histidine kinase
Amino acid sequence: MKQIKILFLFFSFIVVNFQKNNTKSLVQKRKEAVQEKDLSSAIRYTKDVIVLKNKLRHSLSKEYYRLGYYFFLNNKQDSAYVNYKKSKEAYEKEGDSLNAGKVLKEIAVIESNYQLYYKSDSTAIKALKYLKNRDKIITSVYNCLGINANQQKEFKEAIYWYDLAIKYTKDEIKKSRYNSNKANNYIFLKDYEKAISIYKSITSTSLFNSLPLKLKSKVLDNYAYAKLRLGKDVDLEEFLIAQKIKNHIKDFDGLITNYSYLSDFYMIKDKKKSLNYAYKMYELAIQERKSESTIEALDRLIILESDHRIKKLAQKRFRLKDSIVGARKKSQNKLVKVIYNYDKEKKQRIVAEKKSIENKLEVEKQKSEKQIWLFAVIITILSSIVYFFYKREKNKKEKVIEVYKTETRLAKKIHDELANDVYLVMNKIQQGEDEEVLLNKLEKIYSQTRNISHENSPVLTGIQFEYFLKQLFTEFNSDICKVLNKGLSSIEINKLTKEKQIVIYRVLQELLVNMKKYSNASLVMITFKQEKDKLYIEYKDNGVGVDKLKIKNGLQNMETRIKSVGGTIIFESENQKGFQAKFQLKK
């Protein structure tokens, strides 16, 4: 058996090492694919890495993030979205809120790209809660919120978010980009002076010539346009410099904007040139499949073209507008469907995981219950053994004490009741007392001796106990005092254990003896009653009552006897109102 375990461990070690080496090989291949910009291969290798790492039970948060990133670069944003969501959940499980916040930012960007701005805002706000100003990426989240606000034409709100992005960024290039975005929103608000002021500050810095060409050309273009809208003199060269840069870097989106600005530039000066740039804008927008820009270009053409062409342009615009709305809904629905399916699968996965955990907990619970029961049984057995020996020793001690008490009581009784009488008779004999008187004295001594013997004789138990108990009552019954019982025949007292029968007998005997000595009662009533599994016995006489101090030892003896069988007893006595004792015990 030991050899099999060793072989199994050795085989497991080999398998794990093989999988680790295989993972390293795949990671290297992926690295090479990324360097060669082979995104399809990078995606394939990352999927294989996830499978192997899952078998090794390694963290998958980073791998899902990489897979989402490669899908995003490969223009498969719906697949990127799903893998970013998986990465976010993995980071949350690991308690890594910082990286979870970073992934949420990527998710917010995709939602914004699909024009689900309200959802993107919600995701971005959640990202901010995770990041808590702890990371430089927070500025990108503010930028995303600014873009969302801008797209919803909430330009003042957009400026608010860009101000936060500017406040927290330490990157001067990013600061220039966010300032450019902020200035652009002032253009939308027609606050051209503020826009010009911001653009001027950007172009005046020593960093301006080091800005990425795309950002630099955008700043130049928008700066010139803001001045144009304010009515200031603008040199054509300002637009052409921006255009040259955009042509050089093939920034077609930027060129479309530049052509629109030049169309505005010539709108009053030269309508023909304005129309020419409007057509350039239109043709490039169609070429790049920019529907919104195409609509904007058509709007310009409708204003600038001759009347006989306006109708045709308007029809094109109408058809394109319908197709844009349809395409937008289709695009949004695509991501909404991805979100719905992912959430549905997530819920199913959570339910399955919950069921699995519940099953495991149930198994553990059953195991724990078995262990508890086994422990309880062991404890019970040990306790029973300990209790058995304790009870046995206690009974031995109680018997010794009982014997001692009985001997003491008998000795006292013999001394008090017999010794004096015997001594008196002996004295009378020496004095030659009358024989008849001596015989009477001896008869009295004999009667006392017989009573002492009877009081301490063995108790008859078992099926004859009821009869034996009635005999006790009869012995104390006389013309002076009537001893009555009630309910004795209805409680099946013969079925009690031997120990309980003896206790009942001795307690009632002690009560009757005390009654005869101290109470001067003319009537005694002993009532027996059974309720469920308990037996209730009540002793009551109409005597003068008893001072408890006089019979203290007797009361203690009765209490000890009753407690020895698990019962309780209480005593009540008032001067001239009789004596009562009530005790109960389980059948």
